[in-house]
Amino acid sequence: MRVKSQLVGLPEVVESDLVRQVARSLSAAIVEGRLRPGTKVSEAAVARELGISRAPVREAARLLENQGLLRASPRRGFFVRELSAAEVDELYDLRICVERHAALAASCRLTQKTRAALREQLALMDALARADDPAACIEADYQFHRMIFEAAGNSRLLRVFDGLSSELRVVIGLIGRLYDDPMKLARAHVPLLEAIEAGRADTILAEVDHHLGVARREVGLLVQSLSTGAALP
Amino acid sequence: MRVKSQLVGLPEVVESDLVRQVARSLSAAIVEGRLRPGTKVSEAAVARELGISRAPVREAARLLENQGLLRASPRRGFFVRELSAAEVDELYDLRICVERHAALAASCRLTQKTRAALREQLALMDALARADDPAACIEADYQFHRMIFEAAGNSRLLRVFDGLSSELRVVIGLIGRLYDDPMKLARAHVPLLEAIEAGRADTILAEVDHHLGVARREVGLLVQSLSTGAALP
DNA sequence: TAAGCGTCGATTGTCGACAGTTTTGGCTTG
DNA sequence: CAAGCCAAAACTGTCGACAATCGACGCTTA
Known about the structure:
Chain A is 69% helix and 4% strand. By secondary structure, chain A is mainly α. The first copy, chain A, folds into 2 domains: 18-80, Winged helix-like DNA-binding domain superfamily/Winged helix DNA-binding domain (Arc Repressor Mutant, subunit A, Orthogonal Bundle); 85-227, GntR ligand-binding domain-like (Four Helix Bundle (Hemerythrin (Met), subunit A)). In chain A, helix 4 (85-109) packs across helix 6 (134-152), helix 4 (85-109) runs antiparallel to helix 10 and helix 9 runs antiparallel to helix 10 (201-227). Residues 1-15 of chain A have low confidence and may be disordered. Chain A binds chain B through residues 2, 13, 15, 17, 19, 55, 58-59, 62-63, 66-67, 74, 90-91, 93-94, 97-98, 101, 154-157, 160, 164, and chain B through 15, 17, 19, 38, 55, 58-59, 62-63, 66-67, 74, 90-91, 93-94, 97-98, 101, 154-157, 160, 164. Chain B binds a DNA duplex through helix 2 and helix 3.
């Protein structure tokens, strides 16, 4: 026991942690596409813009480097990570691997509560698709998959997913309005959830493979079109 | 193309990167068991001992935090990560998931060269076991598994493994001489390699499950005995 | 005219310092 | 003698500054 006297677990101090704030800020800028892949991220500039010193910025940059959002080039600074088509393929390869596991585990441990939450999330996606808000729809998509990993009940597995998706979002953030059909995106998740609810292992695996296989192809095409210099909104 | 004119590939400048040096130093101290789980890692103390300022130490600590070796407690400093039995179970759950994938992929892409390297590694383990050097044997064990991930040809998958094993090594580093039978450890890997060489998917999966299942149990027992305050060398 | 070299500005890597907070040790008190 | 409180020390979080290094621009030269 390291805790001397634990009262009720109430306080949960709001982390004023400047480093994490900076990390979130930068992360958001990257994911939202305001910082394009390949862009140099100057410590001094960020520090000036945020009105703080360079030390917290540096640490935040290290954090994002380890998360795969930034690439550190010694003595030259940090750059927004660029993803080649091959790397996207790697990411999806790994993602299929872990998401199969997550979906199976989630199916085993599925509670009434999480089942309802998952259904609600799909309804949200559908609503956002109807409202023609692709960005929010993609965010909801991400959350849906993340909920599956949460339901799997393995925090390390969830961490891998977070790492993966933060890398992927460097690219996916660029999709925005480009996404052709949000409705299709929303509907594509229904059979996956149904398979998880049904609890048949082979069906679940097939659905995950299919769902992510499609995503892998589409994101792959996107990246390819990006690297050939297609126009962006 | 970013390189203007590539001469022969000679230079390979030694990275003076102080941060990584510190990270390696701390990492080694933790893995080798000189820094026990739960121990506070004082920035000032480390900086003094290494004869440098606190800034690089701070950044290295952040790095190790993100790697799972340290735990950051705001305003209180960094502590060597402690692993509960449940967390070790989580780690092995994830590891089985990714190692199944890695073993399958490695089997598909197996070249003559990597096959020879894997066999050599097993021979090395055997030799170390005969020489009664459990620490080196464990290191060789780790390297063998890492080589499988390398052979799989997915750098992200490898990164997950590195993350996993760095967390596990916090515990495993404490085993040292406690390990009961190094020879058993060395021999246990033979069928796994043979399965990979044979290239039969179901056999590979079964071997991975068996091999890691055993390891999971043994490490789990170790952690349990640690938490009950068993003596250590 | 084009290629190579040297210099200048800008940026990173590292340092020491200061303010605020946590911990520790001793002291008081029941 | 144990528990609680108070003050001092130690430590973290952040800052501004300096030296070393990198990239760019202009100059020299074949």
